[in-house]
Amino acid sequence: xxxxxxxxxxxxxxxxxxxxxxNKVAVLKTCYVFQDRCYTKVETEKDSGTKVILTPKKESVxxxxxxxxxxxxxxxxxxxxENDNLFSDIRRLIIEQAFRPISFTDLxxxxxxxxx
Amino acid sequence: xxxEKPYLIFPYRxxxxxxxxxxxxxxxEFIFPSKDDFARLLCYQMDTNSETFLNxxxxxxVTDSNPTLPIYLLATKYRTKKSFLNNFTALHIFIVTLxxxxxxxxxxxxxxxxxxxxxxxxxxxxxxxxxxxxxSPSPAIKIEFQGGEPLLNFETVKYIVRYAKKLNxxxxxxxxxxVCTNLLELNExxxxxxxxxxxWVSTSLDGPRNLHDANRITRKGTGTYDIVRKNIxxxxxxxxxxxxxxxxxxxxxxxxxxxxxxxxxxxxxxNSIFIRTIHPFGRAAKEKLGYDVETFIKNYKKTLDYxxxxxxxxxSFSEQYATIILKKILTPFATGFxxxxxxxxxxxxxxxxxxxxxxxxxxxxxxxxxIGDNRFLMGNVHKNSYQEIFNGKVIRETIENSCVETMPxxxxxxxxxxxxxxxxxxxxxxxxxxxxxxxxxxxxxxYLIIHHLMELIKQNDPDIMNIFWSWITNRSIEEIKxxxxx
Lengths: 116, 486
Fold this sequence. Notes:
The structure holds two protein chains of two kinds. By secondary structure, chain A is an alpha+beta fold. Chain A has a single domain (5-114), classed as Gyrase A, domain 2. Chain A contains three helices and four strands, in the order ββαββαα. Chain A has a four-stranded antiparallel β-sheet with strand order 1-2-4-3, covered by helices on one side. In chain A, helix 1 (24-33) packs across helix 2 (63-98). The model of chain A has no long low-confidence stretch (mean pLDDT 86). Chain B is an alpha/beta fold. Chain B has two domains: 8-81, no CATH class; 87-380, Alpha-Beta Barrel (TIM Barrel), CATH 3.20.20.70. Chain B is built from 19 helices and 16 strands. Chain B has helices spanning 35-42, 51-58, 68-81, 123-133, 154-171, 188-196, 209-215, 225-239, 258-267, 282-287, 293-312, 320-330, 363-370, 386-390, 393-400, 423-430, 441-459, 462-473, 477-485; strands at residues 8-9, 12-17, 20-25, 30-31, 62-63, 91-95, 140-146, 174-180, 200-204, 244-249, 272-273, 275-276, 318-319, 350-353, 358-360, 377-380. Chain B has a nine-stranded mixed β-sheet with strand order 12-10-9-8-7-6-14-15-16, with helices on both faces. A three-stranded antiparallel β-sheet of chain B has the order 2-3-4, with no helix packed on it. Chain B is globular and about 75 Å long. The interface between A and B is medium-sized, with 31 and 38 residues.
């Protein structure tokens, strides 16, 4: 397993982490968020690591701030990814129910598996 | 099978919000738990008797009992939020002429000289357009006359009103007319007609004389403020203050002076203003009348604060964009505002009929066509059927690419329920219908305005909340206070 680490070079940030902690979807969505401030590059490493290279588009960008924001965002995106997996069934149920003629019967049978 | 978890969590989106977390569910209900409570929620460690849990439960984020009813309620609320999809196209914009007596510096419509009557909509095309409008299943039909300057082709306006009313005797729809005019051609005869047919008037006013005349000039280059001011008063006196509204465009000339634009609106007896950003089309792009997002947002917030203070001092005056967003945040209802919905209102809520019968998904789409790009041309009333136009490839592709639920960044954004997409703007600026959210000014401006309004809501100042409710419900602050106490 590879440990999380950050290397700050003169004009870029290299962030390495273990892919067993973060899903690829969460990593890519995190990188997307930073595209207003940074050029982003994602690379895979040997031994199950992933490397993200963030190069600020402007000199005024604070690398330390970017690093802190990146880790926060990555965790948020991972939670969202896991939430999506947890909720996708219920979300589909809600939307299906919203657009069908009003009926309780159908709904009751479909939500049995979510019962507390 | 029974779950061993103490409660069930329903779908929601979240974001860090200052020192707390903002959670918004599919129905648009929101709550600001602390970071600790949020962590407990995720780990199923919440005390189901705690106040936060009970709040989450009452707003349909969680349940510790049978989920059937909460899911049913969420579905009902979701349906209400998406009720704008029920009836298909209600707003039909008729470009009755491209001729205009003004040459505004930010004009996106590429108007033609007053003498060029070949750019007028003729009666035959007008009839075909109205026939097309009446194929819409919507029980409400609003026909909006635009241009150019529509009063320059007033005979076609009158014909359309007459013919639509004739059809309406059979179809029995809720029919309304609006004329969007710069008021330069307004006279007693036209006013009488507008009064007789209960036609709403929408005009343009960019602020006091120096700001208005900086952009809104005649083709000869002279200012229009004096005549517009005089005719606004005439129209208000004849038609009633509530039947005439005005729109402004924020440019680099007035972006730092928006308070004085508000003062002008107050002086001219308007009870609201819509602080609109400039659309980067046509001459506006050439003349470089824009500004950066930061400048706009800083001044928007300052002006919103100024308007709130006017209300605190007893005046009844609202900002319309904030009102639309507040309605989305604080009520279960859809707003019908086509620029901020998902899927976008392009074609399905609003359609634009060009002077020659071309049908576009929006006015910006028509502008693109004027510069040779027919990407959003749905068809032509002389050549295509209703099915071909309103169920064709163009409208389908535009709608498919404007659902924030599936768009990168928007799909996980906590503000998703309150926001929307503009595929035509995305295409014209970023070359792609979906656009690139991190660098989109449309996205940034909406995000920052919603964030600011959320901050004000979170502060929960009773006086400010009363003002917001008075804007949303179009009632006086006194009425809001009475409804709370009584």
